[in-house]
Amino acid sequence: MKLYYAPGACSLSPHIVVREAGLPVTLVKTDTKTRRIEGGADFLAVNPKGYVPALELDNGEVLTEGPAIVQYLADQEPESGLAPANGTLARYRLQEMLGYINSEIHKTYSPLFKQETPEATRAERKEYLRKRYAWIDGILAGQAWLLGDHFTVADAYLFTVTNWAPHVELDLSQFKALESFQQRVAARPAVQAAMQEEGLIKRSAAA
Questions:
Q1: Looking at residue 141, which CATH number applies to its domain?
Q2: Nearest-CA neighbor of 27 among 58, 45, 1, 3?
Q3: Is the whole-model pTM more than 0.70?
């Protein structure tokens, strides 16, 4: 498999999942502005949507959209516990959470990364995000991970998008449970490895 990614983008989520599951994958760095793959090839030939992540399967098919990709990856190693079994209520709870993160949090960040976004819009979007995070913070105040006692693909996704907050000057310091969650995820070896690979944190001297 090949995972097309851009450093620090939402593709960090499946990158983390790949490492958590111990799956063999080739990482392909992508420039989302020029739509060029490392080496110069046209990324649009891989994913006409033009954005990461994209997962090229061994049979040549390409899977897009982060929530779909992370579930596919988790299902390749069911014993990893990264996603509950298909057909169970727990699996639908996972999809419920992925949908919430995708529509209510992930996409709300988008205008905050655009220089042309008016200040009034920025303020409104930041307040919207705080309201959405308040619900998440309430969940994490009572349990370590979004779905309970086990780290899942939803946790990887939430961690990834929440990492964007400092880059758009979004203050989330009021959410103490969320803050602790981010620290727990960041300390996981697979997460450390993914972030080092993407140049988001420095490699340790031992590495």
A1: 1.20.1050.10
A2: 3
A3: yes
CATH of the domain at 67: 3.40.30.10
- Residue with token string 């599951």: 21
Give the phi and the psi of residue 40 in degrees, each rounded to 5.
105, -10
Identity of the residue numbered 99: G
Whose CA is closest to 13, among 179, 203, 190, 201? 190
DSSP state of 198: T
What is the residue whose two structure tokens read 């982060």? 66
- Rounded CA-CA distance 38/30 in Å is 6
State whether 93 and 165 are in the same domain: yes
Rounded Cα distance, 108 and 104, in Å: 6
Enclosing domain of residue 35 = 2-80+192-197
Tens-place pLDDT, residues 118-172: 999 999 999 999 999 999 999 999 999 999 999 999 999 999 999 999 999 999 9
- Asked if residue 136 is part of any domain, the answer here is yes
